[in-house]
């Protein structure tokens, strides 16, 4: 294979995929002296959920959850420096909004991706091999067909996501009137002739699609429907203490739990990471309220039906679509007829196909998932001495903060410290007020036996002056339940 002109020797770190998380790692690694890194993505440019950059849709995290600020706010790759470079600091200051629009966040990431020298777009890693002392990656440029190799001591997987289409909608695969919300902006015009549109899914994407449709179809007679399996349109948990589940403290606590407990928690904590924001739900209510001015409640052709599952979907015999539905509480079943369906049914992590040559060297749990340590390193067979790290593929081991942008910079710094074997970025030891683990048991000092009249007092002390046992333990000597374990600080 042809090899382009690159400096001799292996890279210290090769990144596969450039989403926000690997872009964060690239930004934090870029100024480190002597560290050679390369991040590759098969796409020709950075794109972040382009189908959901709906006008006005906002992020669910503050702007400080950018690529670098929560680790290094002085970095030239911070969002505030991005504003400074574009002479937009004062307009942003007067806007007084803590959350960016999705469109602006995408623009910021594209700004960084286009300027970072260690990011190479239009370059796909097609296969990854272990050679005995390093990784060898096979690279291909889809636009030109050019192929070559690169070697690296460590690899980090920026695990992307794929849209989930529930099995109930299998008969509608490829149907022009049924598509995933990931393609919403590209397919929105396809809904122009529909007189009845159904949105399925109660998360943020479902709420944003439904809100956008409400704004576009006010008074034109188009019936809009929102179906969700959840029994209520409960907002995402956004209280200040509730948000401490998205701290490194909680990640450490979660990682130390038994696997069965972790799996239960991920499902039980859906309201921490899968629900819609209270602000978006409020905007939907405002839109509906405005429709009641001069008209009775319910006059507008709008239906919101939680607690309803779609069990099967198919093309209708006379056109349109038919959805078999079951009401969760009552068990009542009915058939719903609609012209189009937007599936806001979430995403699943998708590991790169390039890992296939390494599969026999990777340690997985009984469910086939990576075993991942606290430093985000994937467990491999002992002969693989190079680090294989993962970003956004460890929800089952690190908890609800895994896909959250607010923990992206911290995770990138943890990986960077582990790869270099030193503290490139100093990280805080404590990040939450909440103590998630029970307090450690306090050692109880021995007590002197009580004397019984007529019997000698037993003692374990040697002859001589009796020592008075201490009745208290200095607070500084007690274990602190939230302090990192040795594994948590390895390589920092």
Describe the structure.
This protein is of the alpha/beta class and 492 residues long. It contains 13 helices and 20 strands. The protein has helices at residues 20-29, 79-85, 89-95, 102-115, 184-187, 204-216, 248-255, 259-268, 270-273, 278-290, 395-398, 408-420, 486-489, and strands spanning 13-16, 37-41, 58-62, 99-101, 119-121, 124-130, 135-140, 147-152, 155-158, 160-163, 178-180, 196-200, 223-227, 302-305, 308-315, 321-327, 333-338, 340-343, 347-350, 388-391. Strands 5-2-1-9-20 form a five-stranded parallel β-sheet. Helix 1 links the parallel strand 1 (13-16) and strand 2. Helix 1 (20-29) crosses helix 12 (408-420). The radius of gyration is 28 Å and the shape is globular. The two termini are 38 Å apart. The relative contact order is 0.15. Residues 457-492 have low confidence and may be disordered.
Low-confidence stretches: 457-492
Given the structure, what is the number of helices? 13
Helical content (DSSP H or I, runs of 4+): 10-25%
Across the major sheet, the strand order is 5-2-1-9-20
């Amino acid at each position: 294979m042809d090899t382009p002109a690159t400096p001799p020797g292996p890279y210290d770190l090769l990144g596969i995929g450039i989403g926000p998380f690997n872009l964060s790692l690239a930004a934090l690694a870029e100024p480190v002296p002597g560290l050679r890194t390369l991040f590759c993505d098969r796409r020709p440019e950075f794109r972040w959920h382009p189908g959901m950059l709906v006008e006005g849709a906002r992020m669910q995290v503050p702007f400080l959850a950018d690529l670098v600020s929560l680790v290094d706010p002085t970095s030239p790759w911070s969002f505030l420096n991005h504003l400074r470079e574009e002479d937009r600091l004062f307009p942003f200051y007067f806007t007084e909004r803590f959350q960016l629009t999705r469109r602006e966040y995408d623009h910021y990431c594209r700004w960084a991706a286009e300027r970072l020298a260690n990011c190479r777009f239009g370059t796909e890693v097609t296969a990854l091999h272990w050679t005995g002392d390093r990784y060898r990656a096979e690279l291909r440029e889809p636009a030109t067909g050019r192929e070559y190799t690169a070697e690296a001591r460590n690899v980090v997987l920026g695990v992307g996501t794929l849209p989930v289409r529930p099995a109930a909608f299998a008969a509608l695969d490829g149907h022009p009137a049924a598509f995933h919300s990931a393609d919403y902006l590209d397919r929105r015009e396809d809904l122009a002739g529909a007189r009845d549109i159904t949105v399925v899914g109660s998360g943020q994407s479902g709420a944003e699609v439904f809100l956008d449709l409400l704004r576009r179809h006010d008074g034109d007679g188009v019936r809009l429907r929102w179906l969700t399996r959840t029994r209520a349109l409960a907002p995402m948990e956004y209280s200040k203490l509730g948000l401490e589940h998205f701290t490194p403290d909680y990640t450490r606590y979660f990682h130390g739990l038994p696997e069965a407990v972790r799996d239960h928690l991920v499902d039980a904590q859906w309201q921490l990471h899968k629900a819609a924001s209270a602000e978006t739900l409020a905007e939907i209510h405002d839109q509906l309220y405005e429709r009641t001015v001069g008209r009775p409640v319910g006059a507008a052709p709008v239906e919101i039906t939680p607690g309803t599952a779609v069990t099967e979907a198919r093309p209708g015999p006379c056109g349109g679509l038919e959805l078999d539905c079951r009401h969760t509480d009552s068990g009542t079943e009915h058939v719903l007829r609609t012209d189009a369906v937007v599936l806001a049914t979430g995403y699943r992590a998708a590991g790169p196909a390039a890992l296939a040559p390494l599969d026999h060297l990777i340690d997985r749990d009984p469910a086939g998932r990576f075993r991942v340590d606290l430093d985000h390193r994937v467990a491999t067979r002992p002969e693989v001495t190079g680090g294989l790290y993962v970003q956004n593929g460890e929800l089952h081991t690190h908890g609800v903060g895994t896909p959250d942008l607010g923990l992206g910079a911290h995770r990138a710094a943890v990986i960077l410290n582990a790869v270099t074997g030193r503290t490139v970025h100093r990280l805080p030891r404590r990040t939450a007020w909440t103590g998630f683990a029970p307090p450690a048991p306090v050692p109880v000092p021995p007590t002197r036996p009580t004397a019984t009249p007529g019997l000698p007092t037993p003692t374990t002390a040697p002859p001589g002056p009796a020592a008075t046992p201490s009745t208290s333990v200095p607070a500084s000597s007690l274990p602190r339940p939230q302090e990192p374990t040795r594994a948590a600080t390895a390589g920092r």
